Structure formats: structure tokens, C-alpha cells
Amino acid sequence: MSAKSDDGVRLVRWPEEAALLERLRAERAPRLLLVRPPVPAPLVSDCEEDWVRLPADDGDVRARVQALAERSTRHRPAPQASPDGLLRFGEGWVALSPIEHRLAAVLAERFGEIVDNDILGRAARPDEPPSNGALRVHMTRLRRRLGALSLELRNVRGRGYVMGHAAQQE
Predict the structure, then answer these.
(1) What is the residue-averaged pLDDT of the chain?
(2) How far is CA 64 from CA 14, 57, 100, in A?
(3) Is 33 within 8 Å of 49 (Cβ atoms)?
(4) How far apart are CA 153 and CA 1, in angstroms?
(5) Quick one: pLDDT at residue 168?
């Protein structure tokens, strides 16, 4: 069984875990292949994959994992809020209420970044921003809809919210 780093990068023994590697590729999970001699180095052309020859220094492995996590985050596609009231991501979509759609559009535009509560409040209701409690209710409803797209909405206490990819399950 492969390990998972704190950065969400999966460590895969190559070629022993080839079936797991194919599954992780399909899920678009970032992965670091651990290659033992005398196995030849794998051909890697995906920004969400890298490899390291074992035995490797722990610092080298950590550096590869961190670089891979950052690279895969930058290259992963972001959801799109379409004019027809849908949020599209990958092959899926969810229908949103007008307020949810405006919130999702702002969050998708700044995918993976913290969006300030004030900005979200003005997006939800431009003429009269909702109270903090009402905004939390809207965000809770939006959070439920995002699960169907393997997206998550995280609260950064006192600052705002971040829309991102749902954590990969083992």
C-alpha cells in the first residue's frame, strides 16, 4: 500500500504498485514514484507525477514531494461558473441558486486562494450584503453542492473561504 504525504502527494512503489498508479492517474492525484534499482526510470510527462531513485535522502524526497504538490496545484483545472447558472468542473456540473452562483463565480475565479468574507458578501447581494450568519448559511448550502463535483469549501476563520479540490481518500 502506498503512503500519502502531508501535502497530499501519494508515494507509489514502482513498478510493484502499477495498478495503484493507474488508479491515481485516473483520479489526477499527485504521485511520486519510488524507483528501486535496477528498474529503469519511468517516462513521466504529467505535471502531477515525478519519480526518485531509491535509496534517496529524506530531504531529497521531501523536496520532490513539495515541488510536486505545488506544481500539481498550479496545473489542475479550476471550476467554471457558466452564465446558465451551473458550476462546471471536469465532466460534471451542479445547478446553483442565483446567490450560490455569484458566490461560486468569485471562488472559482480565485480557485485555491482565500476570498475575503466582505468580497463574498458583496458578491452574494451587491445592493445589501448579507449578515455574517446569512453568509454562513449560503456557504453551507454551496458546500453541500460542491461535494458532487469532488470540490470542497473551507472556512479560514476570520478571513474568508477557499474553494479547492476535495481531499483524496485512501
Answers:
(1) 89
(2) 16, 11, 38
(3) yes
(4) 29
(5) 47
